[in-house]
Automatic annotation (TrEMBL):
MF (Gene Ontology): DNA binding
Pfam families per UniProt: CENP-B_N, HTH_Tnp_Tc5
SMART domains linked: CENPB
Keywords (A to Z) from UniProt: DNA-binding, Nucleus
Alphabetized Gene3D superfamilies for the sequence: Homeodomain-like
GO cellular component, one term: nucleus
Keyword Metal-binding: no
Signal peptide: none
Compartment list: Nucleus
Annotated organism of origin: Homarus americanus
Name of the protein in its database record: Tigger transposable element-derived protein 1-like 105
Taxonomy, superkingdom: Eukaryota
Length: 198
């Protein structure tokens, strides 16, 4: 049966199909299945299905040349890969921000490259463009996402990171030994603020 107008309105937004899925679309249409029914199966517009069928020779040649499953499944563009990398990197910075921790430039650059490479493998993107996460790119990333917890110079770069990691436990021991309560603990960088409050 041909789906009615109500069913057609439930078609999702246009999405990209893999070459393997394109080939399956062609097979279904060659097997006398209506293009409208195929479109509903994949959740895309009928016009997209017609476009895929017009390029069936290209799809067949691509699948013949594909020597790996990864190439057959490649559908995401390098642009999408970079956009997703930015989203994940923003979450990484926000996570550190919630802990009141600044992220150093080198750490941010290394993390961006690692996320990019992991996504390329996960999405099976064949031969993704090189991505170096340069300082210029990091500056633009900060501007696009209003990131403020990244330090390029100053305390984060010059501080003793090894001692900083160990100190929280040392502080807990001091508090336990002295039996201090929350009202007796102050951040010395905020003493001016506390004085003004008084």
């Amino acid at each position: 049966p041909i789906p009615g107008p109500a069913a057609q309105r439930q078609i999702k937004k246009r999405k990209s199909l893999t070459y393997a899925e394109n080939l399956e679309v062609v097979k279904q249409i060659d097997g006398r299945k209506l293009k409208r029914a195929v479109a509903l199966t994949y959740g895309i517009n009928e016009s997209t299905i017609r476009g895929i069928y017009k390029k069936k020779d290209h799809n067949v040649k691509h699948m013949e040349l594909a020597q790996t499953k990864a190439l057959a499944q490649a559908c995401r563009s390098p642009h999408q890969l970079l956009m997703k990398t930015e989203q994940l990197l923003k979450r990484y910075v926000q996570k550190h921000g919630r802990r009141n921790m600044a992220v150093e430039t080198r750490d941010l650059m290394d993390t961006a490259k690692q996320l990019y490479q992991k996504l390329a493998r996960k999405w099976k993107v064949a031969n993704p463009p090189a991505f170096n996460a340069s300082k210029g790119w990091i500056e633009n990333f900060k501007s696009r996402h209003q990131v403020r917890k990244v330090k390029f110079l100053g305390e984060a770069a010059s501080g003793d990171l090894a001692s900083a990691k160990v100190y929280p436990q040392t502080l807990r021991n001091i508090i336990a030994t002295g039996q201090y309560n929350q009202d007796q603990i102050f951040n010395m960088e905020e003493t001016g603020f506390n004085w003004k409050v008084m």
